[in-house]
Amino acid sequence: LAEATIARPYWVRAIVTRKGKKSPEGLAGAPDHRPYRPFSDLVARRIRQMMVSVVESPGGTAYGAFHRLGAARLPRVTVGGKTGTAEFEKAGPPTATPAGRSTRARPRIGRHAWFIGFARSDREVQPRTLAFAVMVEDVKRGGTGGAVCAPVARDLLDRILPPPGREPTGT
Asked: Average pLDDT, whole number, for the chain?
């Protein structure tokens, strides 16, 4: 994360004049092939530290999914992430008044839970860094990204980056 340069985002593929001539690069929103760093190395390192603490710190929202009795469930795999929930309005079922008219019930609030992150195996000769996102829609009351989605991510990473002596499964 700290060393990465990425492709610069753009929203205009080309600007073409009436005569069919393409405008040069450098216009706002046009492709730009220079290396792009969305933020400084210092900011990138700090974001990475915060994401790792979500998984590694006992107060982190995904700590319970990645640790059992204080021991890491994925030894020698660095995992960082961000948990979250998002509320949405669910339409209630239609109801009828005593006079027989159809009315809409008051909307209820539902929740989606998510966990996004990265994992890097220290067990591989050429370590890979994987990015992942797990989202569960309309979770039951009390469901959170740390409680519902982080365990799914852990199981997925365990299959892709297994301990030595066990082959990856489902990849």
From this structure: 85
User: What distance in Å separates the CA atoms of residue 118 and residue 169, rounded to the nearest whole number?
Assistant: 19
Q: How far apart are CA 26 and CA 120, in angstroms?
A: 36
Is it the case that residue 120 has pLDDT exceeding 90? Answer: yes
d(CA 130, CA 78): 10
Q: Which amino acid is located at 99 in the chain?
A: A
144: closest CA among 63, 72, 74? Answer: 63
Please provide the distance, in angstroms rounded to a whole number, between the alpha carbons at the two ends of the chain: 24
pLDDT of residue 168: 76
Q: Which segments of the chain does DSSP mark as H helices, in order? A: 41-56, 63-66, 150-160
Determine the Cα–Cα distance for residues 135 and 112; give it in Å rounded to an integer.
Answer: 7
Give all strands of the β-sheet with 108-121 in edge-to-edge order: 77-90, 108-121, 129-136
Question: What is d(CA 122, CA 119) in angstroms, rounded to the nearest whole number?
Answer: 10
What predicted TM-score, i.e. pTM, was given to this entire model?
A: 0.73
DSSP character at residue 109 = E
Check whether 49 has a pLDDT greater than 90: yes
Task: With beta carbons less than 8 A apart as the criterion, state whether 94 and 104 touch.
Answer: yes
Q: Are 106 and 89 in contact (CB under 8 A)?
A: no
